[in-house]
Design goal:
With about 190 residues, the chain is mainly α. The protein has 9 helices and 2 strands. The protein has helices at about 15-50, 55-65, 70-85, 85-100, 105-115, 120-135, 140-155, 160-170, 175-185; strands at about 5-10, 15.
């Protein structure tokens, strides 16, 4: 039976001037959060790229204090801890992320990178293979193959490394880093 009262979709709240203002405010807050979160990720990546990992870690830790359930920040912090050789801290952050999204390719790949950094190649291979099974998108899969190639190189297996890099290049033909690696390995 139609009552003539319009409802805010999915919330079952009557739509009137007050609730409309509140819903617009909520949408704006969500947009601002995502924009600021995006800007934050860009800042953290820039700091890392310019070699200021300690500063990037501090930014990420402060952001996680404000947003403890932010999956992306948890993975980024885990990745940075790994680069610093702080493997226990890296695993702690990645465990948090994997509890939020257990099948996420990025988190599984970074988990593999941590094991590779520890020279535990078998476990690294396990996590790369878990990530490949998810096969979410070509770009993510290409980066998993690229990291798997690096693992094979660490193990001294150039043949499988080149095979994985070629798989990565097939998925991301415009990726300059992968192209360069395939070219270098083909020599």
């Amino acid at each position: 039976m139609e009552t003539g009262i319009k409802m805010i979709p999915r919330l079952n709240i009557p739509l009137n001037s007050s609730t409309l203002s509140i819903s617009i405010l909520l949408v704006n807050i969500v947009i601002i959060y995502h924009l600021s979160n995006h800007d934050l990720m860009i800042t953290i990546n820039k700091e890392q790229g310019e070699g200021r990992i300690e500063h990037a870690v501090e930014i990420c830790k402060k952001a996680l204090t404000a947003h403890p359930d932010d999956f992306g920040l948890a993975v980024m912090l885990g990745e940075m801890y790994s680069k610093q050789g702080k493997y226990k801290d890296a695993f702690n952050e990645l465990e948090k992320a994997l509890k939020m999204r257990p099948r996420n390719v990025w988190a599984l790949k970074v988990y593999g990178n941590v094991y590779a950094g520890m020279k535990d190649y078998d476990r690294a291979m396990d996590y790369y293979n878990k990530a490949l099974k998810e096969n979410i998108d070509e770009k993510a899969t290409a980066w998993v193959y690229h990291d798997l190639a690096q693992l094979y190189l660490m193990k001294g297996d150039k043949k499988n490394a080149l095979r994985c890099e070629k798989m990565a290049l097939g998925l991301a033909p415009d990726n300059k880093a992968i192209k360069s690696q395939v070219s270098e390995m083909g020599k």
